[in-house]
Structures are given as structure tokens and as C-alpha cells.
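Translate structure to sequence.
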């Protein structure tokens, strides 16, 4: 059997690789902006819809077990997307500074064009009230800030210094809640029991 990750996320790839999982990468080609447009409701539902659509798009053209995943940042009920410029990333980090936000993630598995499994996660992220000098230093040292995900931080590295407290699974913060995925893979015969 073949496991396919319907995501181009380097973080998701690294999580599966570090767990010793064999898989292929085949990113879904979706217009996420169209799916997000006009969405009303809990942003966790949006993350699940995006994950399902990714899994289905790839599953319709490829045999095997397909994992779709997505994550949204919920700041007081407002959706934060990935920053498109360093200035936008800086503005987002300023808006999150000293505040609490949620990373709402979802994973969906599809086989033969049908969703066979769903999982949702929610991580409470309490960002510390860092100084402007720290923020400037972070932006200078963080590397390509535009690849750091919806929060403009890479929690597995320098981005951890932005936080006072995090409640939730470490891998879910990074974008793929690993233990439920491993359980699914064992159940589907894709990983050793």
C-alpha cells in the first residue's frame, strides 16, 4: 500500500520522516482562498474542510491512503492566513503579542475518493509580551519568515521564544498531530502493529 501526503508542508514531511513512515508527497492543487471566502462558523470546521478537500483531490487521482491536513490560526474568531510579506508577518506578530490565540488543525484520510477518517486538534498558544527589540531580532534571525506558517513563527526553533505557554500536542502545533495519524496507519495496515 502507498501512503500519500497531500501537502507540500516541509514541517508535515519532517514529522512523518522523523517517525520512520514511508510516504510520497503529492500536494493537492486547491484554491484555498475560494474555500475560505464567505466561510462562517468555527474556524476548526474550516481547517477540517480544507484537510478533507486536499485528501479528496489527491485520492481521486491516486490509489492508496491519502492524508490531507490543514491548520488555521484563530485570533478572537478572526482567521489569520500566512503572511505574504515581512511587513505583514511583523504586523501579525504585533497583533498576537501578549495575547492568546488558537491553532486549529485537522487531518483527513481518504481512500478511493472517499473520506475514511477525520481528526481535529486545537492548541492554545499564549504569546508573551516581547519587546520591539526582540521582535526586530527575531525577524532578522528567523530565516524566510514567509515559510513559517499561519503564525509567522516556527515553534520547533527560534519561534518558541515568542511564547509564554502552549497547551496542546507539540506535533499538532507543528501542523500534524502525529499520534492519531500513527494509530490510523496501524489500523489501515500502513505501519507495523
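Result:
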Amino acid at each position: 500500500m502507498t501512503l500519500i501526503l497531500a501537502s507540500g508542508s516541509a514541517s508535515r514531511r519532517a514529522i512523518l520522516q522523523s517517525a520512520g513512515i514511508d510516504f510520497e508527497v503529492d500536494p493537492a492543487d486547491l484554491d484555498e482562498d475560494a474555500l475560505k471566502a464567505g466561510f462562517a462558523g468555527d474556524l476548526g470546521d474550516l481547517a477540517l474542510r480544507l484537510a478533507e478537500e486536499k485528501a479528496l483531490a489527491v485520492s481521486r487521482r491516486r490509489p492508496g491512503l491519502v492524508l490531507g491536513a490543514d491548520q488555521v490560526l484563530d485570533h478572537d474568531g478572526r482567521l489569520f492566513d500566512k503572511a505574504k510579506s515581512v511587513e505583514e508577518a511583523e504586523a501579525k506578530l504585533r497583533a498576537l503579542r501578549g495575547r492568546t490565540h488558537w491553532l486549529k488543525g485537522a487531518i483527513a484520510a481518504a481512500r478511493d475518493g472517499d473520506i475514511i477518517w477525520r481528526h481535529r486538534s486545537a492548541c492554545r498558544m499564549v504569546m508573551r509580551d516581547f519587546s520591539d527589540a526582540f521582535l526586530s531580532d527575531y525577524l532578522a534571525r528567523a530565516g524566510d519568515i514567509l515559510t513559517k506558517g499561519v503564525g509567522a513563527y516556527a515553534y520547533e526553533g527560534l519561534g518558541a521564544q515568542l511564547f509564554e505557554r502552549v497547551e496542546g500536542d507539540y506535533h499538532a502545533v507543528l501542523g500534524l498531530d502525529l499520534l492519531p495519524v500513527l494509530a490510523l496507519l496501524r489500523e489501515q495496515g500502513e505501519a507495523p502493529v
